[in-house]
Structure formats: structure tokens, C-alpha cells
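User: I've been going back and forth on whether these two constructs are worth ordering. Before I decide, could you fold them both?

Assistant: Sure. I'll take them in the order you sent them. The first construct and its C-alpha cells:
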Amino acid sequence: MTSVRKICCIGAGYVGGPTCSVIALKCPEIQVTVIDKSKERIAQWNSQKLPIYEPGLDEVVQKCRGKNLFFSTDTKTAIKEADLIFISVNTPTKTFGNGKGRAADLKYVESAARMIAEVATGDKIVVEKSTVPIRAAESIMNILRANHKPGVSYQILSNPEFLAEGTAIEDLVNADRVLIGGQDSPEGQAAIEELCKIYEHWIPRENILTTNIWSSELSKLAANAFLAQRISSIKFPLSTQICELLDEGAVLHIYDPKVEETQIIQDLTHPTVTNNPENVKSRISIYKNAYSATKNTHAIVLCTEWDEFIELDYTQIYADMMKPAYIFDGRKILNHDRLQRIGFVVQTIGKKLIRSAISRAWGSQTQA
């Protein structure tokens, strides 16, 4: 098996973009191309304002883009030239059929596998990076084998991600472990070794764990289950929760200093999130700053860890809100005691807040 010189990542989302950017940074001799069918998303990756925000990501992309890191919609060329291909596409919850509302929908993973089989003319290492059910790698292999061309062989690996929002680059650069699963065959072990060599550019070998595919997939699902147990109240993606609020009649004001208005609307009206996009559009307004967004509202929900949100003048914000004024700190970054002294009814995750004397005197609701 030849050494990996070109990598292709199918899916320019939250996992694929940062992961491949760090690989490009740490492996300057390897050409890394991230592909996506969305022209708008690829245009954002090639712009000065990336489609996602993670501390440190801008600097990594700026350093590598145009050198050994590329973002493209030319899927066929990238797949054909790649030695190793990451599949890093969305796996939304099924909205119909068996497992509706519970099981992962593998249509994008399977579509990526079919695209590889259609385009590939040489041997490929195919790495599942998406969050997938156990035996998904077997499904990918079945598709590749059923559609492969003569003389083309594939090795399937599982390399789950363990990234957290807000620390993704730190999690990648200083990973405490990397997990790689492959087949227990000479060819499978050789493929594992090639992926190990990539990570060994910056991760100590003792932190790179190798196992079989089934165990690798199971480990990721176990980690997800543990996370869900820790924060069981956060059960669905944020966009889904927002649409549920809108279905209950809420009017939503949105402010995000990093995400473009078009991207916000696209995320909230995606078919996997709502079946009534026009209702969503009619009940949301997007603002240019936090003060105008919070004016005359009943509650604030803080969902991201931008430093700007810590530094806001909450006394002014409280004065302009309807009373009682609620604030839900979903990232646990604010000074809750100070907010309570101002007059807010404060809620957060995993912490029961004691009402201040002022709040009790006014008969404010018990904090959760």
C-alpha cells in the first residue's frame, strides 16, 4: 500500500472542515481537499468569513488554504485523485419509516459511498468520520463492493470524532486519544497504519488506539450516550428546538456575530428540521446586535460562547426587556449572581440557582 499523499473529505461541515484543516496544518506534505455539493458552503470556506466559528479555526485555514488545503465542489476530481477519503456527512434523525424520530438516516453516508464507487479508478482507504450506527462500515463496504470497478479495492476504517463545540481545534491539536478501527487482515492493518502515520505528525503513538471496526463504532456511540446522560435536557439539535418554540407560537429574535443571515435561515428551514419553512421564516427576525435583538422580549437564550456575550451591558438589556425577564445560560459563561441582582430570572444547565432576596420579595419563580 502506497503512502497517503492526497486526502479527500466528503462533507464541509462542522467535523470535516476543522478536522481536515488541522491535518493540513500538521501534514504540509499532504494535499487535503474538502468537497461539498453546496456551492454556497464551499464559497464561505474560501472567503474571509467561514461558515462555522471555532476559536483558532480562522488562523489554521488562513495559514494552509491555497497551499495544501483546498475547498471545492469538484467532487469527481478530488475523489479520483485521493489515496484516503473521509466520509464526514450529516446523519440526521430519520423523519419517516422504521426508526422515525430515533434512528440515524444514513442516506448521505450511502450516497457518498456510491459516489466513491462511481468515480474511483484506483485503490482507496475510506474512513467513516460521521456519527453512524454500528455496522455502518459494513453497509459502506457492501455498496463499494457491489459497484466497484475491476482492479479497484477498498479498505474501510472507522475513525470517530470526539469534538466539543467551542474547543474543536484544541480537541484536535491536543487530542488525548485517537481511535481507529479496521479489518483484521493484512490489508486492513496496513490501512490502519497509514492513518496512524498521519496522526503521528502531532499525536503521540501511545494516544492512538487501534481496534476492529465494530468496537470503534461502538465506542463512539457509547461516548454519545454518556454525553446524552450528562445533559439529557439538551436532547435535540438547537435548530430543532427553535422550530419547536415557533410551533408553540413564539416569536424569535436572533443575533449571532459569526453566522450570516442566509446561513441561519437555511439551517432553520432545512427539511430535516421543519416541514413548514414558511412558518419559520414568518416568526423569526435577525438582528445586527444583541441590544436590538433583546429589546421588548420576555427571555434570552444564550447558546454560544462568544466573548462578546460575556461583556454585554446586562443592566441596559434588562431595562429594555418585558418583565419578568428570563435568561437561560446554555453555556454557563455568565455571572449568575450579578444577573440575579440586576433582576433576571436565571436558569442554566446542571445547576440549581438560589433565588436572591430581591427575587423572593417580588415572588419570582423558583429557579431551575
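The second construct, handled the same way:
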Amino acid sequence: MDRIDTVRLAAFSRSHADPGALPGCMDIVFIENFTGQTIIGIDASELDVPQPVRLNLAIGVPSIRACTTDQIADTINYAAVREAVLALFATHRVQLLEALAETVARLLIDDFGAHWVRVSLAKPAKFDDVDAVGVQIERRRDDLGASHTGVVSYASLGKGLVPN
């Protein structure tokens, strides 16, 4: 599902009696061991030179329609997620992995319509004597409030503007 299709997913979410509640069944779209380059860190050696970060994502949505329709428009398009994450890696201004993981979680919830996400972000080359250091967070749509700063907020842009 790309950013445009989140409007349809948001409409599905609003059709439930309790829009804040997660559905009983979640389907998971995932990306494993994605390695990108970004400037991240607080040490002087990390402030100017991109370093590798490894990302694992689990993106939960209620009952993916693509299971029956076989249409990419009915699911989360992991190619679109990958491109959005690459763009984020190139442009973010945070220093800590925790803040970057939170930004990724918000991106997936706000722009891709995820109801639940698990973001694992690691620096595999930080120290010579460990494989990786990092953080793993989980967020639910209702944990982040009703920010919906992505395309979903445009669904009602013209609401109330038509005269009676």
C-alpha cells in the first residue's frame, strides 16, 4: 500500500465500532535486514560521515485484502516503504537511534496506514567487539494519538466547504 491507499485503509478503520481498538487479527508485512547509510550518533566521529544502519520492520494491518485480491494496491507496498526509509535516512536531523526509530514508526503509521509497527534499528559497525548495538520499539496507532500528518489527513480537506 502506498501513501495514497492509506485513505482507503483509514476508511476501513473508521468503520469499526471502536476506531482506537486494534482488530483481533493482524497481518504482518515485513522487511528484514535492510542496510542503509545515514548520519546518526553523538560521538564526534559520527557527526559528518554516514555509517551503516540495519533496519528490521514488522508492519501490522488488519486482514490484508491482497490475500484475496492479489492486487498491490490492497497491501502495504514494501518497495514504497523502502524508498520512504531511504529518503528519511538521507534527510533526518536526529542524533539517537531511538529518535530515528520513532520517526520510522510515525512514518509507517501516518503515511502507510499501519495499525501496529515494530522497528528494530541497529549500528552494526559501532564497536569492534560486538555485532551490533541498537534499539527495538513497538508502536500502535492509538499510542501516537491522532496526528495523521500524512495523506490520511487530506481525506476531509474540503469537508464543510460546500454551501447549503
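Notes on the second construct follow. The longest strand covers residues 26-38. The longest helix spans residues 97-112.
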